[in-house]
TrEMBL record, chain A:
<dbReference type="InterPro" id="IPR002346">
    <property type="entry name" value="Mopterin_DH_FAD-bd"/>
</dbReference>
<dbReference type="InterPro" id="IPR036683">
    <property type="entry name" value="CO_DH_flav_C_dom_sf"/>
</dbReference>
<keyword id="KW-0560">Oxidoreductase</keyword>
<dbReference type="GO" id="GO:0043885">
    <property type="term" value="F:anaerobic carbon-monoxide dehydrogenase activity"/>
</dbReference>
<dbReference type="InterPro" id="IPR036318">
    <property type="entry name" value="FAD-bd_PCMH-like_sf"/>
</dbReference>
<dbReference type="InterPro" id="IPR005107">
    <property type="entry name" value="CO_DH_flav_C"/>
</dbReference>
<feature type="domain" description="FAD-binding PCMH-type">
    <location>
        <begin position="1"/>
        <end position="169"/>
    </location>
</feature>
<protein>
    <submittedName>
        <fullName>Carbon-monoxide dehydrogenase medium subunit</fullName>
        <ecNumber>1.2.7.4</ecNumber>
    </submittedName>
</protein>
<keyword id="KW-0285">Flavoprotein</keyword>
From TrEMBL, chain B:
<dbReference type="GO" id="GO:0043885">
    <property type="term" value="F:anaerobic carbon-monoxide dehydrogenase activity"/>
</dbReference>
<dbReference type="InterPro" id="IPR002888">
    <property type="entry name" value="2Fe-2S-bd"/>
</dbReference>
<dbReference type="GO" id="GO:0046872">
    <property type="term" value="F:metal ion binding"/>
</dbReference>
<feature type="domain" description="2Fe-2S ferredoxin-type">
    <location>
        <begin position="3"/>
        <end position="79"/>
    </location>
</feature>
<dbReference type="Pfam" id="PF01799">
    <property type="entry name" value="Fer2_2"/>
</dbReference>
<dbReference type="InterPro" id="IPR012675">
    <property type="entry name" value="Beta-grasp_dom_sf"/>
</dbReference>
<dbReference type="InterPro" id="IPR051452">
    <property type="entry name" value="Diverse_Oxidoreductases"/>
</dbReference>
<dbReference type="InterPro" id="IPR036884">
    <property type="entry name" value="2Fe-2S-bd_dom_sf"/>
</dbReference>
<keyword id="KW-0479">Metal-binding</keyword>
Length: 263, 169
């Protein structure tokens, strides 16, 4: 790692002031950032540790939504009775991220801000129609992910919480890369008051909604209806883990399994 | 930039001054000479460096020492009570759950974290929870047997003993 300075602010306002400098990066759980620094793929002048910000932690029910602090860890989300009761698909998704040690440190906000194309949470943000709250605004879940490792966050903008509308039913299914656990493809299917939503991660440069699947499942919410949809491979990820065509084929298969799991 | 930090390591207070980029595992091994915590891959894959931080398992190669400031750390050196091995260590010994031993400290601490959350884990839970710990010798079967036996022995311990010396384990 290159040398860097370190700040541990006590308030969100203080943290936001510190990360306004473009050479400064926020540090959440560090499960991606620290390996990135070790490989010298990033060389920030300073890190701003969000670990001391109680404002960013915790889970609560707010009307029809579940509100999760950005610094809540994957392990906390997986083990939360509130999440298990309201959005069990999200608890199950969190339980399948990385390994126990990654889940004990990694955070929801950190994962969203990093926007890894194979991360799990983006499928939930898009598929559940979550809202991402920042220090200055609320970003609609559909508008968060722009491209590979690219979000709608402005420089210096900090995620503070995520609101998840409680769905009627939801399920997440993924084809996990066996060594890393990352999603080769992950599909979250949700039945909501406004219709079926399907969020896909791992398949493209960033998470997206599979609208063809949503239309088919709005007409008939059955595994067969999902399996009958053909997803074009154009623009999908093509790497050593899977070809674009394979990923395209996985999307309806995983969607069908998720529909079955919704019951 | 040098930052003073305070840790409680295996029940003892430790004050050290570190650079921001110093890893928790470097503090344990180099500053505090607790070399039972191993560095295998240094890329958070292998789990040889697993320690407990405030009772939960973490990969000490992927935590900055400054992030651990104020925290309670348990390393493999903190498990035994004098010459009496911790029940999980004893179970690894009894079930031949190691050959070269390099992965063992991390395996044992991951197992202790598992049992703290699931006192009676199924074999599937044991396998899933050891996902972050690699072993190149055993083929894992004896490790799973050891964790099952260690969990049983931990359940059988008197509560006072488990809570002795302010340990989380």
């Amino acid at each position: 790692m290159y040398e860097f300075a370190y700040h541990r602010p006590a308030t969100v306002a203080e943290a936001v002031a510190l990360i306004a400098d473009e050479d400064v990066l926020p540090l959440a759980g560090g499960q991606t950032l620290i390996p990135t620094l070790k490989q010298r793929l990033a060389m920030p002048a300073a890190l701003v540790d969000l670990g001391g910000l109680a404002e960013l932690r915790g889970l609560r029910r707010d009307g029809d939504a579940l509100v999760i602090g950005a610094a809540t860890t994957h392990a906390e989300i997986a083990a939360s009775d509130l999440v298990r009761q309201t959005v069990p698909a999200l608890a199950a998704l969190a339980q399948r991220i990385g390994d126990p040690q990654v889940r004990n440190r990694g955070t929801l906000g950190g994962s969203i801000a990093n926007a890894d194309p194979a991360a799990d949470y983006p499928a939930a943000v898009v598929g559940l129609g979550a809202s991402v709250h920042t220090d200055r605004r609320t970003i609609d879940g559909d508008a968060v992910f722009i491209d590979l490792f690219t979000t709608a966050l402005e420089p210096g903008e900090l995620i503070t919480a995520v609101s998840v509308p409680v769905p009627r039913a939801a399920a997440y299914e993924k084809a996990a890369q066996p060594a890393s656990g990352y999603a080769v493809v992950g599909v979250l299917v949700a039945r909501t008051a406004a219709g079926v939503r399907v969020g896909v991660t791992g398949a493209g440069p960033c998470a997206f909604r599979a609208t063809a699947l949503e239309r088919a499942l709005d007409a008939a919410f059955t595994p067969e209806a999902a399996r009958a949809v053909t997803i074009p491979a154009d623009g999908l990820n093509d790497d050593l883990h899977a070809s674009a065509a394979y990923r395209a084929a996985l999307i309806p298969v995983l969607a069908a399994r998720a529909v079955a799991a919704c019951g | 930039m040098s930052i003073p930090i305070r840790l409680t390591v295996n029940g003892r207070e430790a004050a050290v001054t570190v650079e921001p980029r110093t890893l928790l595992v470097e503090v344990l091994r180099t500053h505090l000479h607790l070399t039972g915590t191993h560095v295998g891959c240094d890329t958070s894959q292998c789990g040889a460096c697993v320690v407990l931080m405030d009772g939960r398992s973490v990969k000490a190669c992927t935590v900055l020492a400054v992030q651990a400031d104020g925290g309670a750390i348990t390393t493999i050196e903190g498990l035994a009570d004098g010459d009496t091995l911790h029940p999980m260590q004893q179970a690894f010994h009894d079930h031949h759950a190691l050959q070269c031993g390099f992965c063992t400290p991390g395996m044992v601490l991951s197992a202790v974290d598992l049992v703290s959350r699931h006192p009676d884990p199924s074999d599937d839970q044991i396998r899933a929870d050891l996902d972050g710990n690699l072993c190149r010798c055993t083929g894992y079967q004896p490790i799973v047997r050891a964790v099952r036996a260690g969990a049983q022995a931990m359940r059988a311990r008197p509560a006072a003993e488990a809570g002795a010396r302010g340990r989380h384990v």
